[in-house]
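Repro:
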Amino acid sequence: MAFDAQLRYTAARHDIVDALLRHLLVEWGRRAPADPQAWMDKHAPTMAGRIAEAQAQLIGISEEFVPAVLAEQRTPIAAVGEIDASSLVGVDGQGLPIDSLLATTLPTVERKVQSLVMPDDAAGQAASQSAGWAAGALDLVTKVRTLTSDTSRVATGLHTIARPGVGYTRRLVGASCPRCVVLAGRVYKSSHAFDRHPRCDCEHVPAAMRNLDARTIDPRAHFDSLSEAEQDRIFTKAGARAIREGADISQVVNARRGAGLGPASGQRLTDAEAAEIRNGTGKYATARDTTTEGMTKRGLAHKSMRAKTSKKLPRLMPETIYRVAGDDDGLAREMLQFYGYMGKSSKKVKKVKGPAGGAGGGGGGNRNRGSGGAGDNDDLPIDTHVTAQPGGTPVDPSKVLTRHQLEEFGKVVADDEHRWDEFLVHEKAIAEWLLTRKVPVLSVRTFKEGPRTRQAPDAVTQGVRSSPVEFKKLNPDDGITFNYLSFKANVRLIAQKCRRGVIDARGTDGTISSVSAALKDAIQEHGVNLDEVTVIINGADGLPVAVGWRRGQR
């Protein structure tokens, strides 16, 4: 679960970091300087100063966050002594000065330039320099994101460890790597170091140690929340398939730590070995795509394999198992069990099929990032909830078409390969996103004739309620700025057509804070005619986040 204090903290942290990165990228610019080192000498102090200011802000919100989230859990534990986190300002996670960190972007620029093959003329040199400078900008973003996340985590950790009897769990934020997913299911004492990697955006969830078992995150639930395409990307195709077949997620992820994979090692499984495993001495013959993880005497894989054979065998990786099993799903599951991948809590994933021809954007799974995800009841996905008292003037009910009326008029497209044919480009993009969140929709035909008051919504959902939903896309005049008035106008237009709507603001610079404020005001003005509104924005990690309001949601 995500506490309100945690959500506010995450939103505030992302706003600070996003604003910092915008400043730094403007300072960096798009045009490569003639002398990068001289440029860095001149600009590094200004950039370092901005980063230090952001660090101070992050420390400030961390100081407020820890007591707030503990109070929300009804365990207000006071800190013992004063906490001074000011030493975190001006240095990175290794304690090195920020200007030294900034200087490490220049080798990235040089490596990129050297790796390019360009014409040996002025135009070619300019192109390579420009590409190198762009690579440096990406490196800068990665390092600053890592630095600011470290600052936030250490500051939060200091305020956690200063409180007796308080520990923490790990909260996944945005797209998370497999190792973070596994670690998120564990309980930590306050003195335990927070494991992280570059660009890791995970957060502490402080709580009294006696309550921590109830605060943990189920890694399998997180896996199930991803679309199949995302599962394959994050956990590898073979690993994700194994988990979907019932393999324990920790076993699959941890197995890669002891794996010797890759063409460079010359240790790939041969066709002859695969055949031997299938047909020769059984499925337990020696093979080369293996892992040493779990093979100690106390390891789960060792115990599982020793229970079935006395032979000293290597542990096969999921990739190897699926190559050996081929189309035999029963054999694949049997081998996963033998090699210790199937845990007691294993379960299979129920897939959701997308439109024929791949129109669903790869997908079946639910990509919920928070507690407000959609399910069989076809609620619109909401990751960050906005609380607002609905107000405004009720519209004439006769002007708002129901699903039943739309079907009577023959406007709902059949559930076949043409289900999305009536969508415009931006509407299809919203439908694809909804499908990744397990909310499939059908497009609705427009009224070619008849009174203007009979306006058809863009879609109907296919869940239990199966009700109309209107799609809107924000198109800023300058191509990026989130426009408060334009947003409210779109909410008003949704309310005139149906009681549910999705607004796509991914093309703007809208943040959780700015969108939440605008949505709250819009609901207060037009919410009497609405039940749900979801706004899609880009999160700090570049992945979609759903900010929304739902009638009766607290």
